[in-house]
Amino acid sequence: MFWLHITLIAYFLNAIAVVTDKTLLRRAIKNPFVYTFYVATLGSILVVFIFPLGIIWPGWSQFLISISAGGAFSIGLFFLYLGLKKEDASRLAPMVGGLVSIFVFISAILFLDEELSGNQILAFILIIIGTFLIALDFQEHGLWSWLKKKIGTAKNLALPKIRKTLLIALPAALFFGLSYILTKDVYNHQPFLSGFAWTRLGVLVVALLPMLFAKNRYDLRHQKKDTNDSKAKYRFLFGQACGGIGAVSIQYAISIASVSLVQALQGTQYAFVFLAVLLLTYNHPKLLREKISVQIMIQKIIAVMFIALGIWLIADNLA
Fold it and tell me: % helix / strand / coil in the chain, to the nearest 5?
């Protein structure tokens, strides 16, 4: 079960990276394309250290799959960062993660001929309920006030709105899910270090493409420094160090274990993100402040519990 410890540590580090990204996208780095470029470039530095250890040419077929896996991950990052600019991290992370779990299992069924058990069907239902519950907007009053107001009143019954961020979470989850499936195929046919290097190349190549547009190049060269947040660059490096170690750890776990099981355990990341957001909101609101009330917290906790229970059923079935 060595992979399990690696996975849990990786999701803890990823949670730190997600919350740090949110604080930077809120003020310091406003263009998601630029932020994706920074992250991809910094991550590609790891490949420089891998080359001396020996990179194997995998053949054109595996090369294209590796590049596609990395490219899909880069596109998923962009949509994630775009969502973090507009949405609470404690809401967006479970939303994306729940959808990724669904996409990964659907892909496994379609391309790996896996059959769904009763527990897996129940798990999908729970994940879908949790994902949409966390996506619903009950205005400023939260779920409980909405229920008290609406139950028993047939007149002017207004349904809660699905948050527009779900439209961003869907493509983010789709590309992350595609990346996980392709990455597993890469590690099924290539040594870990070599496969990791080729997928990181795909991340960098796709992140460079938006720089063909003048506006993105201008934003990259003229990134404004936030005078009220002079430590932003150190937070960026800290966050990316956590994210980098987490990414490598997850990639290694995928290479030695079931990609579905590794992805399913992402539920632990939601709890870490939620706790980190609570700490920052109440102790360092200048860095990150999310709209938190008792009723909103209850809504988020119930939604995460649905997702976590579904993920637990999946993990229990695969164990």
Answer: 80, 0, 20
Q: Tell me the pLDDT tens digit for each residue of 99-147.
A: 887 787 777 677 656 566 777 678 777 777 776 676 666 555 455 555 5
Burial class (CB in 10 A: 0-12, 13-18, 19+), 114: middle
Residue with tokens 């991809």: 40
What is the per-residue DSSP string for 88-114? -HHHHHHHHHHHHHHHHHHHHHHHH--
Q: Say if pTM beats, i.e. exceeds, 0.85.
A: no
Residues 271 and 114 sit within 8 Å (Cβ to Cβ): no
| Tokens describing residue 11 | 């999701």
DSSP 262-317: HHHTTHHHHHHHHHHHHHHHHH-TTT------HHHHHHHHHHHHHHHHHHHHHHHH
Q: Is the pLDDT of residue 257 over 60?
A: yes
Query: Do 25 and 92 touch, CB atoms closer than 8 A?
Result: no
Asked if residues 133 and 303 have their Cβ atoms less than 8 Å apart, the reply is yes
Torsion, Cα 24 27 28 34, to 10 degrees, reads 80
Which residue in the block uniquely carries the two structure tokens 């996975």?
7
Q: What is the pLDDT of residues 184-236, one digit of tens each?
A: 889 888 888 888 889 988 998 998 888 888 888 888 776 655 444 556 677 77
Q: Radius of gyration over alpha carbons of the chain, in Å?
A: 20
